[in-house]
Amino acid sequence: MRLPGVDEPDSGEENRGSAPTYPPTGSHPWLAFNPHLRFQNNLRGYVRTTITPTELTAGFDVLPYVSRPDAPAYTRATFVIEDRVPGLNLTYDRPPAAARTAAPGVDRGRQTVEAETVRP
């Protein structure tokens, strides 16, 4: 999404499932390939937005699992774009408590891209 007066695009990543996610925001390997990304998350959820005359606030609400009912939803991260102020500001970040990481020498970003790329 592009808003007048904002130089950086919105960079939400579609949430795909109960897959591992990378702990703190800003550390995902994809960020090295695309400088416009600000947030990556593999948990299912949705984006909750509030738009006022002075700012746009986007909260990324997620579920820690989807394999059984009654998963507790929580806000994973919140970003704010202020009116006429370039930039996307992270105002809240709650990494998952049990985030898994790849074994040393494994390019987890490349594995994910290859697994999620549709091929004919």
Protein architecture, described:
The protein has about 120 residues and is mainly β. About 10% of the residues lie in helices and about 25% in strands. A 4-stranded antiparallel beta sheet has the order 1-2-3-4, with no helix packed on it. The radius of gyration is 15 Å and the shape is globular. The two termini are about 30 Å apart.
Work out the helicity level: under 10%
Average pLDDT metric = 74
Work out the helix count: 1
Uncertain spans, ≥5 residues at pLDDT below 50?
1-19
Q: List the strand order in the largest sheet.
A: 1-2-3-4
> Strand pairing plus helix content: what structural class?
mainly beta
Euclidean distance between termini CA atoms: 29 Å
Order of helices and strands: EEEEH
Secondary structure: number of strands: 4
Largest sheet: 4 strands, antiparallel
- General form: globular
Radius of gyration: 15 Å
What fraction of the residues are assigned to beta strands by DSSP? Answer: 15-25%
Descriptors for this entry?
120 residues, mainly beta, globular
